[in-house]
Amino acid sequence: AQKITQTQPGMFVQEKEAVTLDCTYDTSDQSYGLFWYKQPSSGEMIFLIYQGSYDEQNATEGRYSLNFQKARKSANLVISASQLGDSAMYFCAMREGETSYDKVIFGPGTSLSVIP
Amino acid sequence: NAGVTQTPKFQVLKTGQSMTLQCAQDMNHNSMYWYRQDPGMGLRLIYYSASEGTTDKGEVPNGYNVSRLNKREFSLRLESAAPSQTSVYFCASSQWAAGGLKQFFGPGTRLTVL
User: Which terminus of chain A, N or C, has less C-beta within 10 A?
Assistant: First the structure.
């Protein structure tokens, strides 16, 4: 069963606007973590942001913030003030918990296109 | 620091051939991973290693073997390559730091099996 769901295969956003990329996950662990990665057309994987399940505040890194709703098991990525260079694939990933020794699995991804 | 390095960058194999993909990291990280990425899809975990001397299966381990040779190196072996193993293979390493677990990826190996 898929543990990470990204329901938006493709998204478009106007330059300078904010955009939210959805991610829902499934785990029975109490301790886990959520990641977001960016993969531009060059193929490299770029770490964006991390949220631990016990973190009380939503994680932020520059223009990226993670909207963590634990009860809903969602970890949406918000990109503020979109730039043309934000056009890429975005992957949500999860570190499973206490007994999985940093095992990290990925969702299917969302393709984001920023329109000038 | 070179970060995570992978060799080779490209490889073409015939069905039934074997090969080993090499991965090394110079960041003294404990955990290392092998993923595959098929066109238009996300990364799927093949194997991971939480520390030197330990390996665990991921989501798609069939057809692969791994070796955690030492803390730096984590190799992936295809004993008898099949066309279904045509993919881009990424190696990664991770370490806990302020702010949580951080993963670092290599540039990938593009493998084609004919």
Answer: N
Q: What is the Cα–Cα distance from A33 to B79, expressed in whole angstroms?
A: 34
Q: Residue B36: count other Cβ atoms within 10 Å of its Cβ.
A: 23
Q: Alpha-carbon distance A77 to A79, whole Å? A: 7
Query: Best residue in A38, A45, A46, A100 to probe B by mutation, most B CBs within 10 Å?
Result: A45
Which residues are B66's β-sheet partners?
A: B76
Q: What is the mean pLDDT of residues A31-42?
A: 94
For residue A42, give every residue at least 6 positions away whose Cβ sits within 8 Å of its Cβ, in sequence order, or none: none
Residue-level pLDDT at B97: 79
pLDDT tens-digit series, residues B41-92: 889 999 999 988 899 999 999 999 999 989 999 999 999 999 999 999 999 9
Q: Name the pairing type of β-strands B19-25 and B4-7.
A: antiparallel
Most A CBs within 10 A among B41, B43, B48, hence the mutation to make, goes to B43
DSSP category for residue B51? S
